[in-house]
Amino acid sequence: MRRLSGCKVNLLLNILGRREDGFHELESVMFPVPITEHLEIEAAPGAGIQLSCSHPELPVDAGNLVYRAASSFYERTGVPAGVRIHLEKRLPLAAGLGGGSANAAVTLAALNEIHGNPLTAVQLAQLGAGLGSDVPFFLQDGPALVSGRGEWVEPLAPLAGLRGMGMVLVHPGFGVSTPWAYQALSAFPEARNGRRGRAREWLSQLTGGDVEGACRALYNSLEAPVLAKYPLLQLFQEFFRAEGAWGALMSGSGSTTFALARDVGTAERMAARFQEKFGTGNWVAVTGL
Ligand code: C5P
Predict the structure, then answer these.
(1) How far apart are CA 20 and CA 76, in angstroms?
(2) Full-prediction pTM beyond 0.90?
(3) CB of residue 18 inside a 6 A radius of ligand 1
């Protein structure tokens, strides 16, 4: 079977503090973005787990989240391993878009289906949370208010205020390590210890009809360390704002920047001007919301 695998941006990522287990408590408005890649997944009885990938830099063993998702599924269920998976990678790596987490979620859901649904949705989400903080989000559709270290997922109604808008996403060709970004927060105590409730307040602003205000109030605690280390990402945001974006922000731990524009045509013009100014070496995508 062929399965599409998408990605996300964090419209708001508010970190509340470091926890005893080393992870960080957070609240985030996560928004699915319809830019996809795909996986081919076929049952192969007796074959173990066989993974191939179009991207030369991605490992095809336990270093790949897809492989780990499959092995944790077989381990948890006791079903004899037998699957052939090909990952056709299109999204940038270490980008803050959750592409790898989405791949893992797609793998878990597909294996569960292939093997006759041995796991419930809750069990799948628990298995997913063990693989990565963003995996439970990708086991459901639609935007969500996410909390804990990412494992509490409260599905939200479609964010109607954003409908009809355009989004530009740009990736500079280098990635940012998520563990590094969280560790580096220790030098930015204000960013590390955000005020709880900000995510719900932001959602109220948006659902209350103040779309431009909500776009100006996009927020990501991880920008403090990441933009300090990579000022180019700050420049990208300033560029989009000067071009008329209602808001621009880094997604997740970076390095992707996204900008919101009043409509897709405006987003496409911004993307073209971005390439004129910063060259065609960056990954650039435009989508309607
Ligand atoms: O769970 P995930 O693989 O996305 O996390 C990567 C790293 O990011 C973790 O090992 C941890 O260092 C950091 N992290 C964190 N708090 C979170 C999510 C991630 O400290 N809520």
Answers:
(1) 27
(2) yes
(3) no
- CA 131 to CA 72: how far, in whole Å? 8
pLDDT digits (tens, 9 = 90+) for 35-87: 999 999 999 999 999 999 999 999 999 999 999 999 999 999 999 999 999 99
The SS3 call for residue 227 is helix
Q: To which residue do tokens 């959750």 refer?
A: 98
Distance (angstroms) between ligand 1 centre and the Cα of 180 equals 9
Q: Is the CB of 150 under 6 A from ligand 1?
A: yes
CA 280 vs. chain centroid, Å, equals 23
- Quickly state the pLDDT bin for 160 (edges 50, 70, 90): very high
Q: Which residues contact 18 (CB under 8 A, 6 or more apart)?
A: 24, 25, 185, 186, 192
Ligand 1 in reach of 63 Cβ (< 6 A): no
